[in-house]
Amino acid sequence: MKLRNFRLAPAAAVVTAGLLFVGTAGTAVAAPSVKSASATSSAVIEEAQASWRADGWYRSEHSCRDAGKKGKRQGKWRDYRCKYEERHHGRHDYQWHLYYRR
Q1: Are 93 and 87 in contact (CB under 8 A)?
Q2: In a designed cystine with 63, which of 33, 51, 58, 94 is the match (CB 3.0 to 4.6 A)?
Q3: CA 91, CA 86: separation in Å to the nearest integer?
Q4: Contact 101, 52 (CB under 8 A)
Q5: Confidence category of residue 54, pLDDT binned at 50, 70, 90
Q6: Do the Cβ atoms of 61 and 98 come closer than 8 Å?
């Protein structure tokens, strides 16, 4: 009886190793499609961000938004956004920066 158990143990180990290998190989095959999808989506995001152009600096959010609305109304751009950014690097002088998209 003991001899029979010793013969089954290596066979069970081989089967278990085979199942583990097949499981990891399956996920390895699926991984590139996920990577390519995220690479594609990040490329689209970078392209969308590249289309935003800077227009001017404003001391208040209200004046930045007013300038953005005015440019949209005059047909200079179709969309705008205001971001609170440091105007001169290292000087800690934050102002509102108007970005637009045509």
Answers
A1: yes
A2: 58
A3: 8
A4: yes
A5: very high
A6: no
Residue 49's pLDDT is what?
A: 62
Strands (E), the chain: 53-58, 79-86, 94-101
CA distance 59 to 48: 27
- Output helix, strand, coil percentages for the chain, rounded to the nearest 5: 60, 20, 20
Q: Residue 100, class by beta-carbon neighbours within 10 Å (0-12 exposed, 13-18 middle, 19+ buried)?
A: buried
- pTM for the model stands at 0.52
* Per-residue buried b or exposed e for 7-35, using 16+ beta carbons within 10 Å of the residue's own CB: eeeeeeeeeeeeeeeeeeeeeeeeeeeee
Q: CA distances (Å), 84 to each of 12, 65, 101, in order?
A: 63, 12, 18
Say whether 4 sits in a helix, a strand or coil. helix
